[in-house]
Design brief:
alpha+beta, globular
């Protein structure tokens, strides 16, 4: 399938139907939450045991992995690419750039929020507090702005 033959809904549908424990992270998660940011790629954090499930689902869209599952497990990341780039994190945990905060996948998964992105298609995102931690992993200038948007969203959440 050529990249102009599908759209964002197809990518999100493949993610949702994969059966993989997958969290949408990065700016795509902010877009799903309705925040005013832009991005051209997808970032997902999946359970280390679900690489094959995700790869199978995306093979239907002619997205092929840059690494074998074993190599991805060793390095903690890989890319699915075919015009739409999907950066896949497969680490059991990750720490903020300053090393002060560690986020485990299983803990983030247990607190996930599920969002309907199109009719009948739901994807999982980290809760807002965990999404802020994921933005602190790189702590680039754009991440700082994203964190401010997420903190404002967090303040608006009912207690």
């Amino acid at each position: 399938m050529k990249d102009d033959e599908y759209d964002d809904a197809d990518v999100l549908r493949a993610l949702a139907s994969s059966g993989a424990r997958a969290l949408v992270i990065g700016r795509r998660a902010l877009i799903i939450l309705g925040l005013p940011v832009m991005t051209n790629d997808y970032d997902v954090w999946i359970h280390i045991d679900d690489i094959e499930k995700l790869n199978t689902a995306f093979s239907e869209l002619d997205h092929f992995p840059s690494k074998t599952p074993d190599a991805a497990r060793r390095t903690g990341r890989y890319v699915l690419d075919n015009g739409e780039r999907i950066d896949v994190l497969v680490a059991r945990f990750a720490s903020t750039k300053d090393g002060t905060t560690r986020l485990d996948f299983d803990a983030a998964w247990s607190r996930r929020q599920v969002v309907e992105v199109t009719d009948g298609v739901e994807v999982a995102l980290p809760c807002v507090a965990d999404l802020i931690i994921t933005k602190r992993w790189s702590a680039r200038q754009k991440d700082i702005g994203d964190i401010q948007l997420l903190e404002a969203l967090l303040r608006e959440e009912p207690t």
